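Ticket #4471: structure output looks truncated?

Reporter: J.K.
Steps to reproduce: submitted the chain below (338 residues) through the standard prediction queue, then opened the result file.
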Amino acid sequence: MKEQIEAIQSEALAQITAATDERTLDDARVASLGKKGSLTLVAAGIKDVPKEDKAAVGQLLNAARTLITAALEEKQAALLEIADRAALAGIDVTLPARTLHSGSLHPLTLIRDEAIRILRRMGFALADGPEIEDEFHCFDALNTPADHPARNEKDTFYFDSGKLLRTHTSSVQIRTMESAKPPIRIICPGSAYRRDEIDATHLSVFSQLEGLYVGTDVSLPDLKGTLEYFLRELFGTTTEVRFRPHFFPFTEPSFEIDVKLTVKGQAPRWIEVAGCGMVDPAVFEAINTSRKDNAFDPEQVTGFAFGMGLDRLAMIRWGIKDIRLLIENDARFLKQFA
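Returned output as attached by the reporter:
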């Protein structure tokens, strides 16, 4: 048996040395160490070896198995090295590497996050609500009359169920007042939907940021100071801000807010950025009716609300002339913000 083991070892080592690829190397392994390999079959016959010779034969088997295994591993490493060299053949490793372009946040995300950070520093908390709304939270509770143009199917997306896609995030303000008592100081960022014709300044879905502050002594100077500070933090401390009287059904008095835009090579001009006003007492009365209490007694609490389009703020901030650039996913445009 000793001679047989030595012969198997020599043959196995010769096959391993002659192997030229992974397949022939694996064939050599199976031929000697596989379940039906020559060395495995010899090892199975050790039970028939005389007792006095078993130790020596066992040592010889273990030594042969160890030697063959080591030769297999060495040959496999050599074949891998040859394959790696072949794979790299013809590649000029001195060429400069390709530039790896990094991604970036979308401009709407950038302006939203910055606006939220400014308002959070002023004590406003984030609030959220559903985008599919009912008419009470989107219109009725906001003192919007039944014949108001915004409630027309030409302006608003209605479902067969009577529900609708919210036209503003003011509905979040209503839901917050239904579930919490004053004082309330919240901001409501999110998507709003209107049946607008898509052009350079309008989209049918846009990003909005609204705010609400209700307490016992909230006044018009609080509203003015809050929004002037916010806009100057967003656009620069020298930004000029003006308030123009306007009408909204849910605030009284109401104002449009403009900032003076100065672009190099152009004359300064005023551009509208937001609407705001003191919460109309009719809104508080609708909330009390919904809550079935008098937590928002118009004689005891006052408040202000404001709303602005984040798309418009982004266009002003970076001088974007066409709002459609914000939804086209054109990498040539978006890489400017990387």
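Triage note (M.O.): checked the attachment and the full token line is present. The CA atoms of residues 110 and 314 lie 9 Å apart.
Status: closed, working as intended.
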